[in-house]
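Reading a protein record of the kind used here takes only a little practice. Each token is a code from a learned vocabulary of local backbone shapes. With that in mind, consider the following protein and its fold in token form:
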Amino acid sequence: MTVLAVEKPERTRSLDRFMPQPHQAAMQVPAWLAALRQAAAERFLQAGFPTIHDEEWRLTNVAPLVERSYGSCKRQEALATAREPAVVAALKAVDLSDANAVRLVLINGNFIPELSSAAPAGVTVRGFGEAIKAGEPALRNLLGKLALPEHHGFVALNAAAFDDGLFIDVAPGSTPSQPLHIVALTHHVAPHDGVLAHPRLLLNLGHHAKLTVLTSWVGGGASPSLTNPVMEAFIGQAAALELVKVVSINDGDSHIASDYVQLADAANLRSFVLNTGGAVVRNNLSTVLDGPAAEATLNGLSLSRGCQHVDNHTLLDHAREHCPSHELYKSILADQASGVFKGRILVRPGAQKTDSKQTSKAILLSDEATMNSQPQLEIYADDVKCTHGSTTGPLNDEQLFYLRSRGLDATRAHAFLTYAFAADAINRISHEAIRAAINQRVVERLHEVAPG
């Protein structure tokens, strides 16, 4: 068999289009970070962005996104943007002060401490610029250890081009009751160009620490923007992290995220992602259970309409023994929306007593909506219990008939069933106030995706 190499177009490998004057950025950072940037830039120039010829990306075409022209935004510009009425309104719309949350604001990838709250005791929060100047040892030891440029072009470009982001460090034994609420807003700063932002997030939880983090990705402005965030999270021994992510960007904006989590012995991760907006949204979540008795729970819900495309790619890497994992992703698709779920469970040699369950469910509210579900099991140990299941189809006619027979009209019966389908995923969020806020957002969105 002959394998043909597919040459990527030069426009998908041009660093100058996405990171003006990269050498200047490298001159302003320590040598170790300059080397990391340089290696990432070289990788991007070699490989470029993924295309539909790459197996992992064949169902999500990013070519229309990367062929556009984008502007960039430095911190001072972002601070000026924060005063615009549309930005003020967007920040207010996702306010979680009722939940006593600590708000951390990113605008076009830049940390804005002037709009952010003070971190709780035991938690250090710094923008990357400040953390680099302070010589944070954890930054040098952890940055780029999970998110490798060779994974794909978006990770490489983020490492080469990011200007700012957040470094969050939780001291061993710290269990702040306040959740952190990262509000990441993208807003165009030029009349004709959207913004290309590369936020970088680094979370480090010491042993026996506990933290809840909600990240709200929101968009504004008339020109399509693209957000390319990368997050690395390290959960120490017996520590616990709950990550809740909401993508509610404008329908013309796109979001390509790459999140990496590593769990030590007996560490615990609970993750939930809600997708409600965006032209193209892709969430890459890679989780390594790297210590005995580590546990991970990954949940997600997508509510799509119009021509939106949402792609959830997950990896549960069982590297050590006695590690359970649970995964449930649900999608509700209307109009011509399309969805992808690809969940891979990898059980490495020696990872005995692995117990992993993966489920993907989708409801299609129109004949034109499509869903591709690809559960995968890759097992190299013999004493394990791994299962996966996937269902896709319309609402159950018998259930609709039952509700109609009890006096509900067609619209209310439909709404009842779609909400019940979504609530199963929402109720897996453990933080009560955040769960209530997510529930309200879902109820509002379901009115938009309802047929007719």
Summary: The longest strand covers residues 210-220. The radius of gyration is 21 Å. The CA atoms of residues 233 and 261 lie 5 Å apart. The chain is about 25% helix and 35% strand.
